[in-house]
Predict the structure.
Amino acid sequence: MAIPLHHLLILGGLLFCIGLVGVLLKRNLIVMFLCIELMLNAANLTFIAFARQLSQMDGQVIVFFVMVLAAAEAAVGLALVIALYRTRQTMDADDLNLMKL
Amino acid sequence: MKELLIWIPALPFIGFLLNGIFGRRIPKKLVHWIACLTTGVSFLLAGIVFFRFIGQPATEFSFQYFTWIQSGAFRAEFGLLLDPLSMVMALVVCGVGFLIHIYSIGYMWHEGGYYRFFAYMNLFMASMLMLVLADNFLLMFVGWEGVGLCSYLLIGFYFEKKSASDAGKKAFIVNRIGDFGFVLGILLIFLNFNALGFPEVFAQVAELPVEAGYGLLTAIGLLLFVGATGKSAQIPLYVWLPDAMEGPTPVSALIHAATMVTAGVYMVTRTYPIYTRAPEALFWVALVGSVTALFAATIGIFQRDIKRVLAYSTVSQLGYMFTALGVMAFSAGIFHLMTHAFFKALLFLGSGSVILALHHEQDMQNMGGLRKYLPVTCWTMWFGTLAIAGVPLFSGFFSKDDILWQAFAAPVPHHLIFYILGTVAALITAFYMFRLMILTFHGRTRYPADKLDHVHESPRTMTTVLSVLALLSLVGGYVGLPAWLGPNVFKHFLDPVFKYLPSEQQAAAAHHHSINQELMVTGIAIAVALLGIIVAWVLYQRRHVTPENESSLGWLHRLIYNKYYVDEIYDATVIHPIQRTSESFLWKVFDVGIIDGIVNGYATLSRALGIFTAQLQNGLLRSYLGWVVVGSLFFVIFILFFWSA
């Protein structure tokens, strides 16, 4: 029994929107970070769905690339968050406004 | 000859470059050696070219050196023209210029900016020779502007003195007005004849008939004459020349008496094919010339500054030359130009010698009786005075008499008016020149007695030059004897230049007037000269009138002493309105309001935009992200709905 394409696309779209809204509304840097991961995985899901629909491997290959990128991003991002926490003693994104004009 | 000719203007230019670039670092002696050697060799070359030229049967050589400007169909060649007219001019410019360079060694030795002075003088020589040797209007214009520039630089030579720098500016601006007419004339020539070279243009002009009334040639002639009035100091643009006496005296002699101011006379003579076919333009030339001759002579009567008298005298003598041109006596005009170059250079240099001896005293009220202290200056200046006054046997007598006779006998309408104006001017000339000489060298000494010990004759370089010029003032006229006395070699030499005269005027020129009439004109000329001399002698020698007690003449003296208030009238009618408009409208409304308004408006606008967009930079990570999302959405929507590849 095959899951129709549009089900997968709708699921991917929903996950992406949840991630986006999370990034925009949450203040905690860790949670924002998780939301970005969610958006990346929503994109992955869409790639897989199309790869299966079109019977081509390209989408799956790209998913691997995205996962590698996500891992690298997680390493750098978490390092930054820890460095920030050490200097500023805060996890709140709104407190990090030194660049304000 | 082609190779020699180019060096005549090139050598002084090289001298200018050497002195201009290295003059500050090399010794003063080397400076004047460079300056005098370049002009001297240039004079020598002019002499060699002259003797080769008279040995040739041809009378006109047009040498093309290279293409100067090429733009589309327009071409301007760098070419020099050698014919009797340019030959005479080149010899006069080189000769007088060389003498004045030598004189300047003595005069300028103690002045600052020695190298600057000689560099400018050399540049002037180069420009002036370019002007007289050029074979097209454009190249002539380069020389024309070059001499204007040097005139400005040298009038303002003592630039730390405000009156000198003002006089320089005045000369430059007044000349610009004239140049404007000159440029328009050149443009009109180019539009209608599609050529700028003298031979090409004149060959086309020669095909045209003599104009009745005002036409194209008259328009060109009048516009060129506007240029000539500027450069040659004629009414209404003469006002700069008397002020130009602020410059060092050798400059006054070389530029503002002997050579540069005759550029207008030369130019009108050069373009004679245009003028002879435009009787209306010619009438204006003669009228302006003769009125200027009289007008300026009257101003000379009561001036107290020795150089100013000579300045007005120059304006007046230039008027004579234009009168001659206006009655189509071109060779007489050039003849007077040459003799005037000799005796006026002499008079100016003599006055310079006096001024130097009296430590820059120029007021004749404080002179008198200087004959004992400055013997050489005194007798050489007497030669110049007798020449300019038209005393027989001196050069000025022959040239002035020739002009008066030609004006009397000219085949043009109204020529008797010009003759009468010229004769009255001759009377006044004799008067004011004798007044100058008596007030300076004779009578009682009015110079402070305690300073008289320091008054002594000028150095040898200066007195030698004065003597040479005195000799030239005496014998310079014998090349152009009147018909009743002998052959007119000068006119005969120049005649080939005037080959494009309209046929009817050639016929008129060939028409002989009786010798008796000519003798009568000569007699009248001698009589008025003597009358002027006697009046001056009685007043200033016998009755010891001084400039101080001339003012007892009341309003007449005031009117003339203040130069008929012409400067004041120009001030009120031209300069003041321009200044007022510039200040109240151009400055305070146009510049401040509109120009600055636009610039400041842009600044205010970008500042407001900046304040608005700066609010986006609020430091909130989430709002930045929000803008990224909005931007991405915009692109997605754009590509989905509006993109049509």
In short: The mean pLDDT of chain A is 90. Chain A has one domain: 5-95. The two ends of chain A are 57 Å apart (CA to CA).
